[in-house]
Amino acid sequence: MSTLLIKDLKVVAGEEPILNGVNLEIKAGEVHALMGPNGTGKSTLSETIMGNPLYQIVEGQIFLDGQDITTMSVDERARAGMFLAMQYPTEVVGISNADFIHAALNARNGNQPVAILPFLNELKQQMDFLEIDEDYADRGLNADFSGGEKKRNEILQMMMLKPSFAILDEIDSGLDIDALQIVAKGINAMRSDEFSCLMVTHYQRLLNYVVPDVVHIMMGGKIVKTGGPELAQELEKTGYADLSGAVEGSDND
């Protein structure tokens, strides 16, 4: 089970207000898409859910499976089953991709470290599934990876860590059609009653391959419209101009 509930979330970065009362519920087993113009708070919401200290919550709460995680640190949230695929994955030359994932699994498991041989076997299986060359396991984390390789590597980490709730921040940006299909295959492989997901995206094309249960539109730092997959298709035709008046109103279902 993994249910995320956000109540009246208001967030600032420094002195600047960014989120202006976000309300959101993602139930166990659901995949939600979050769309909206640039600069409207989508990535800020992603980072805030994960606990980035650069963003200060001034009002509201975040609950994971009924537990208030509003004041939890990033590592506490990760141990609780949360995962963030970053928009711009960081390169770390001094640690191999395999060592990083193994260390992350051990950190989450606490007193039950993951045996190396089963880990390596599963890593190979998942890399094969995502069409990642075996030698990438021994390369520095994201070191000299292309944009598409970094995004596939984020999905590899997700599939190995098996979080109960994942946030995918523009996982489709910069991907060609082949890489997009592989990334989507990985996301769809995770779908189950024990997994929930929030996908931040600008484009309908990802949603052609990973069909969301719910689509939300964010403008002005809050969610102004919610609907089914057809809402994203509608946006492809009309853009966001027709929703500009909703920014001053309340969240809509």
UniProtKB/TrEMBL annotation:
Signal peptide: none
Keywords assigned by UniProt, alphabetized: ATP-binding, Nucleotide-binding
Family matches, as CDD domains: ABC_FeS_Assembly
Any Pfam family: ABC_tran
Gene Ontology molecular function, alphabetical: ATP binding; ATP hydrolysis activity
Domain of life: Bacteria
Claim: S-adenosyl-L-methionine is one of the keywords in the record: no
Residues in ABC transporter domain copies: 4-245
InterPro entries assigned to the protein according to its UniProt record, in alphabetical order: AAA+_ATPase, ABC_transporter-like_ATP-bd, ABC_transporter-like_CS, FeS-cluster_ATPase_SufC, P-loop_NTPase
Family indicated by similarity: Belongs to the ABC transporter superfamily. Ycf16 family.
Entry protein name: Fe-S cluster assembly ATPase SufC
Native source species: Pediococcus pentosaceus CGMCC 7049
